[in-house]
């Protein structure tokens, strides 16, 4: 059945597991995006291709899709001379995903890191807050239901993004960090943040949903989610996993985890505490279809 666009937190509080979408960058490259090209500009110059990506994930069974706006802050866009078009690009990104999926699925407005480091004095807190607010407000105008702050590694930047979205929009806010396994066997971000530290900080900042994306395939995501859940027993957790660790073949990174691999790991991930599950780098509509099938089989789907 189709999911009415209630608050995500209300739906998963009832024990439902929702399915998100998969990789966008990989898909854009398959459609011809060249190295060094601005992915977000496709929202203005190649809207049909962007709309088609969102629609393909919805058709595969995703209950929600993201927007092509991950690098849509003015700080990222200034590398392409597009800083002044940040609002226009983000609003278009949300509108295209909304048009692709209709009214019965959620649209997650994607916001990624700015590339600026507060502790290095690259930028002020006010400047970061304003950039995140500009992006979040434009995504809301375009039709996003939720702001998804993702691939974060520093608590200070993530907290500013959450605050900006909460204070300047009426939307729920997801925030996910990217962790890597250390030589000691635990998980940390590139800035040294653990899943437990992340959970405490993001909940205090007002995030409605927390979690992890990128950096790991489903196998390691089970461990990360278990640690998050141990420190956040009641907050919904979202996971966007890579299709395994990348393997370089003839100079090209490939991702070895098959749709069947992902399907087989769903029970363990759900048992660990995941409430919303989708893909990141290397995942395709086929991976999302397999995740959906596993969720349905486990009796967790809507």
General form:
globular
Largest sheet: 8 strands, parallel
Question: Using only CA atoms, what is the Rg?
Answer: 18 Å
How is the largest sheet built, in terms of strand order?
Answer: 1-12-9-8-5-4-3-2
Would you write up a description of this structure?
- This protein has helices spanning 8-12, 25-30, 42-45, 47-59, 74-77, 86-101, 125-142, 155-168, 195-205, 218-231, 259-272, 285-297; strands spanning 18-19, 64-66, 106-111, 146-152, 172-177, 180-181, 187-188, 209-213, 237-241, 247-249, 252-254, 276-279.
- It has twelve helices and twelve strands.
- The protein has a single domain, classed as Homocysteine-binding-like domain (TIM Barrel, Alpha-Beta Barrel).
- It is globular and about 45 Å long.
- The protein starts with 7 loop residues before the first helix and ends in a 5-residue tail after the last helix.
- The chain has 302 residues and is α/β, with parallel strands linked by helices.
Blueprint (SSEs and pairs):
Elements: H1 8-12, E1 18-19, H2 25-30, H3 42-45, H4 47-59, E2 64-66, H5 74-77, H6 86-101, E3 106-111, H7 125-142, E4 146-152, H8 155-168, E5 172-177, E6 180-181, E7 187-188, H9 195-205, E8 209-213, H10 218-231, E9 237-241, E10 247-249, E11 252-254, H11 259-272, E12 276-279, H12 285-297
Parallel strand pairs: 1-12, 2-3, 3-4, 4-5, 5-8, 8-9, 9-12
Antiparallel strand pairs: 6-7, 10-11
Helix pairs in contact: 4-6, 6-7, 7-8, 8-9, 9-10, 10-11, 11-12
